Amino acid sequence: MKLKQKDLSYYPSIVVITLGLGLLFGVPLFITSDFILDVFLMSFLFAYLSSAWNIIGGFTGQISVGHTFFYGIGAYTTMLTNLRIGLSPWFGLLIGGLLSAFLALTLGYPLFRLRGRYYVLATWAVAEISRLIFLAAKEQTGGAMGLWPPVYPDSWWHFQFHASRVPYYNIMLILLLACLVTSWKIRYSRLGRNMLAVREDEDAAESLGINTFRYKQIAIAISAFLTAIGGGFYAQYSLFIDPDTVMSTQISVDILFPAVLGGIGTVYGPIVGALLLVPAYWFLRVTLGYSNLHVIIRGVLLMLIVLLMPFGIVGSILDRFSKWTQKEMIRWSSFRSKI
Amino acid sequence: MDHVALLLQLVINGVLMGGVYSLIAVGLTLIYGLMRIINFAHGDFLMLSMYATFWLHALLNLDPLVSVLLVFPTFFGLGYFAQTSLIRPVLKAPTITQALITLGLSLVMQTSAQTLWTADYRRVSVHYGAEIAQLGILRIEIAKLIMFVVSLTLCLGLYLFLKRTFVGTAMRAVAQDRETAQTLGVDADRIYAITFGIGIGLVAVAGALMSILFYVYPYVGTTFVLIAFVVVALGGLGNYVGTLLSGFIVGVVESISGYYLLSSLRYVPILVTFILILLLRPEGIFEKRLRRTI
Questions:
Q1: What pTM does this model have?
Q2: Which helix H or strand E contains B134, and what residues bound it?
Q3: A295, B237: Cβ pair inside 8 Å?
Q4: Model ipTM?
Q5: CA of B231: which chain A residue's CA is closest?
Q6: Which of A88, A112, B10, B48 is in the most buried spot, having the most CB atoms within 10 Å?
Q7: How many domains does chain A have?
Q8: More confident residue, B236 or A230
């Protein structure tokens, strides 16, 4: 009973946040610079991806450093169905999402037999080997040359807009809101509580009758589905993909780092993290020029942040303000002692 | 008869490569066995050492086999420094923090290499690089033979080091029980740094040797270290003897499948092997009989 009451009290916050983010639909009315719009859009994309990652990595506590695999599957499915059978990218997004969820479930059988560090290693290995396979299979994927779709005039059916980035912007924002609501719905439902139980103590959860394998599978399927749609969107936005841009460890790190920074396992953490990080990346890129230097600095920054703030910002700031987050922090601290 | 000879040839090639895989994997497993850190940057130290060997050859005309003597102490120092500056602070942190540190290091090393030396493929050319010894119907590449002999010598040397020397014994003690080892006067922090240094030193030797046969480019490490990770998974993370033996198995699997499959499918058997190991024996195939953490 008590739990139920508490859950209801979360409603205002999600409504406020959703409306707040909804206001961002108005941004293109004031900002006409393609560049700034691009920064907004990429921030939303990585907020979206990081939230999706958070479902398996944060709620269920299974740290994946290979999410680029799902991202790449989504991007390649969208691109290839468009190129080879002329399907509208909208169907490609859906097929990519379903395929990715299916692959996630299949891989879940071997991978979820592993715990902790072994799982981390396995996700990385699967993603990297897949990258090598995608690079080597030149006839099917174009290899390092990459793939690009035929150019169509602006159309919603073909998911291509050349005149303005506003349609892309709106689509991405809708995706982000949908992901946020999904993540929030999961977190404060029976499903989410069971996922958290898996994260806290797998053996204890198992002894209470929670089928931990089942909840991990549900979490990875949802996460993979959402991540693949993000990948498909990116393919249509950039209109060019190759294994290095959609299937590299760099992408995996970019996906999970906003969540780590913003607070793993919190609904808003990944979004806060991405809205801080992505603009910072772009700032670095602009100030340092378009050489590789900004990528190096990014890597160094990543290591520094991780060394200085190993437990995220949102978690540690919110901690001081409310009882609810204190409880969250207790949970989190018991979690961090275990992983 | 021809088929038998071919198969034998492939097995020999695989075993020779397997020696190097073992050398790379032994460093990984040593590091994991002691401090429970998965070193995602392992392959990038391999890449760095290949570049070092390449430049030593290009600028000073130093033979890669001589470079080995220089590369080991240098990379031991690098590893020692990396452990004390980056790994030591996160030894007790969550897995994700540890993973992000070594992944971050890996990305920084790769992009730095690309910025400094471009993505061009480079190669050390030495006279014995293409020499082949005819042994009846079998052909053995001299370079691979050298690689194999040096790798095996080092692996066995490490084994003796762990068993016979004071530092080696201290390493095994820390691996078994850190607290007890510390109460007995072992400086665990120093042992960790030394272990990391040795692991990186070994992978650097592997890199120096491999530069005779393989092209050097900024992302070369990933390919080889993936194979090394499969070796480690097969042998059991932290299991020294198991890792050594698995190197040969993976080498042979790779050599045979590489011959019979299209080049676009080259990496599929590695992935399949990896997943099969996880599915059937997630603790590694040697766990029961050879259970000895280093």
A1: 0.87
A2: strand B132-135
A3: no
A4: 0.84
A5: A125
A6: B48
A7: 1
A8: A230
